[in-house]
Design goal:
With 415 residues, the chain is of the alpha+beta class. It is built from 12 helices and 17 strands. The strands form 4 sheets. It has a 6-stranded mixed sheet. Strands 8-9-10-11 form a 4-stranded antiparallel sheet, with no helix packed on it. Helix 1 packs across helix 3 (131-152) and helix 3 (131-152) crosses helix 4 (156-165). The protein is flat, with a radius of gyration of 24 Å.
Length: 415
């Protein structure tokens, strides 16, 4: 089995003075670990950040420090707030490593919705092979630290005390973090349009949308307010809400419009801007394939074979995944692989398993990880025979795989 690795190149975003320092820091209590990279940590320190990295994560730590400084001032301007100490960023090579430690004031942390984790002024990010995703994590993390500082104080004790007194709706905080992290982009717009168009009579009402999709609802509201009333009023709304703890009064005092009217105006803004039609097309295309998915589990991968008559799809139930093969000719589905255990406390790794079809369409290759070991399986879809091996230990993560020919693979990986 020959593997041609496409090495990840970390590009310097802009000239930036980084000071590196070797440290021996014990980052909280450990979960089960499958390597000793966590034994020694180093750090890069910039004007506004301290980025901690370990073992093989030097390049990711350097890129993180640069991207954080690149975006810091913009987020600071949006929220009109200053911190009295640097933000600490703990950088992981990948999600698997992030799951192996408990960091931050001896408290465990977890993510169920791909949200950057923040404890006090510490934020935790990981690399998934896409620098755009890393940058989005960084921006959301910075925004979270700033917003927590504005609303609840700068340390854990203040945040706990103030969070009891100040009970803000989920759309307010999660939406503000999302807005400060990315303002507006095609992904947010497409998600909002798809949600509203699925049931316009329901979701063109902000009070209904926020119940089912609080982050999207909040992000869209803050963007609407920025477009109609200006960015300066965003910070004013946040500060006044913290002081008087009454959302409706804050909106009326700052904007001069009752929040009830703002919700109606929000509806008109997006109905026109997204070109929403009030009729829902529930017809099913003639050539559509209906796959049974009674529990509505998320699809993490779908790969069609070269002939176009079979495809493999992956369902992921909170880290326990199921791989199925669908045959168009016979209209049948069979399970090729089931692996993993459910984990409701940590973020699901949708990168694995990777899927690739052999040029002959007789074999399907899967790549997945267990206890920091990366496995590769080739399954014969005719007789079910399985060949399995593991990648060498110097491969940290496989991001993509495909066949070059009938005997060799090409992979995109990090070492």
């Amino acid at each position: 089995m020959k593997l041609n690795v496409l090495h990840i190149i970390f590009i310097l975003l802009f000239p930036l003075l980084l000071t590196g320092q070797s440290i021996n820091t014990k980052f909280g209590k450990n979960r089960v670990q499958y390597h000793d990279d966590f034994n020694k940590w180093d750090r890069y320190e910039t004007e506004n950040f301290i980025c901690y990295w370990y073992g093989k994560s030097r390049n990711i730590g350097q890129s993180t420090a640069q991207m954080a400084e690149l975006d810091h001032d913009e987020i600071q301007r949006i929220l009109e707030h200053r911190l009295n100490k640097k933000i600490e960023v703990v950088v992981y090579v990948d999600l698997s490593d992030m799951k192996q430690t408990n960091l931050g004031n001896e408290e465990s942390f977890h993510s169920e919705d791909n949200t950057t984790q923040v404890v006090g002024n510490k934020m935790f990010v990981y690399f998934d092979g896409d620098h755009r995703h890393l940058r989005k994590q960084i921006r959301k993390g910075i925004a979270t630290v700033y917003i927590n500082s504005i609303l609840f104080g700068s340390n854990i004790q203040e945040q706990v005390q103030n969070s009891i007194r100040l009970r803000l709706p989920e759309w307010f905080t999660r939406g503000l973090i999302s807005f400060a992290g990315s303002n507006w982009d095609y992904q947010i717009e497409d998600s909002l349009k798809d949600i509203i168009q699925s049931n316009p009579k329901k979701y063109l009402r902000f009070d209904k949308l926020l119940l089912d999709h609080p982050e999207i609802a909040g992000h869209s509201m803050w963007y609407y307010l920025e477009q109609m009333y200006g960015m300066a009023n965003i910070a004013n709304l946040v500060y006044l809400t913290r002081i008087n703890r009454k959302l409706d009064e804050s909106f009326y005092y700052i904007l001069g419009v009752p929040f009830e009217q703002i919700q109606k105006d929000w509806s008109k803004f997006y109905q026109a801007g997204l070109n929403i039609t009030m009729e829902v097309d529930e017809s099913i295309p003639e050539n559509a394939i209906q796959i049974k998915n009674k529990r509505n589990l998320p699809y993490s991968s779908i790969k069609i074979n070269h002939k176009g008559d079979q495809f493999v799809y992956v369902l992921n139930d909170r880290s326990k995944f199921f791989v199925h093969l669908y045959d168009k000719k016979t209209n049948t589905t069979k399970r090729l692989l089931k692996f993993g255990t459910k984990n409701i406390f940590q973020e699901t790794d949708f990168n694995y398993p990777l899927v690739a079809w052999h040029p002959s369409d007789r074999y399907v290759t899967f790549v997945f990880e267990h206890k920091d070991i990366i496995y590769i399986q080739e399954v014969d879809v005719v007789d079910g025979e399985i060949k399995e091996t593991t990648f060498p230990s110097n491969y940290q993560r496989i991001f993509d795989i495909d066949y070059i020919d009938g005997e060799n693979y090409m992979i995109n990986a990090s070492e």
